[in-house]
Amino acid sequence: MTNSLTEEKKKSSRLLSLDAFRGFTMFLLIGEFAGLFHYLIDPTFNGTIIGFIGEQFHHHNWHGLHFWDLVQPYFMFIVGVAIPFSERNRLRKGSTDKAVFKHALIRSALLLLLGWALYCIGPGRIVFRFQNVLAQLAVTYLVAFLLRNKSIKLQFAASIFFIVVTELLYRTFSVDGFNQPFTPDHNFGAYIDMLISGELSGGHWVSFNAIPTTAHTIWGVIIGKILLSGKSKNDVLKIMIISGVVGLVIGYALDPITPIIKRISTSSFVFVSGGWALLTFAFFYWTIDILNYKKWIQFAVVVGLNPLFIYLFAHVGGGKFIAHILKPFTFGLFDWMGELTANIILGILTWYFLWYITYWLNKRKIFIRI
Fold first, then answer.
1. pLDDT digit string, tens, across residues 36-59
2. Does the chain have fewer CB atoms within 10 Å around its N or its C terminus?
3. Per-residue 3-state assignment (H helix, E strand, C coil) for 294-336
4. Is the pLDDT of residue 128 over 70?
């Protein structure tokens, strides 16, 4: 009886909408590593709805926005929302403020090391970059954590400060060859990459993105604090919706002046993606915590409870390993339907097995966290 009550208390202390939003985001990420999205942009699908959907699951080449450009901001925002909840739970379990601070420092350092380690796999040498989600989170998480107990006004002001400073640096930087603010590989962010690693990253991504996207994590912390403030659920929902709409209006209004570019996280992109993050979380919060529709979320929650493990597993080749095992059977059964169709089926099956790993871990109460 005691164990049952304890388990129920643990469940009630969690924000299910946040678990579902995190799981949904991670589910999409492992879909990329399953290889499925690659086949959806095959020339066969040009001009079709499948081709359009496939395009949305790839980053925009430069100026513009695809759905896939929102996934990393989603995760930055989710981490921010979780910070006040995590701190509250640790303090309730008897941790001191000093212990909570120490854990945050260690967590940030581990995220950075893991992010750097992923960059070293390909070239087989040490590479210092901040483009992937773990390396950037090491920065945005720590900054947002340090600001967590400041007033909401001060936190918001800090987030705007990071965005404005980035905008000014890009627009006023005067080093020859890197003084074109919105030109690939000829901007301030590219110059910083040359200083850090001595080379440009592939795809025009820049490490400096960790600075403006800190706003996403700070905004998440603000929402987390509001959720714990005692306001009614409907009031919290209104705040998220209004804030999200304001973010979209500002971001899209800025686009003619400062283009929406994910790869260098321009100010317009930060506002637009932050707005979509707020509205997406508002949808999860409304359906799960207000309307109490919870049966459909379990498939996502199991992924969200082991986000770091499944991200690393998929990133270091777990998806390719699973696909390698499944391919002979998949093609043996479906090769008659054509190579493209067989590959799409293989991608779906690989995606399922990546998900099943998190389901298996969840059933056995195995949660790998830092």
1. 999 999 889 998 999 999 999 999
2. N
3. CHHHHHHHHHHCCHHHHHHHHHHHHHHHHHHHHHHHHHHHHHH
4. no
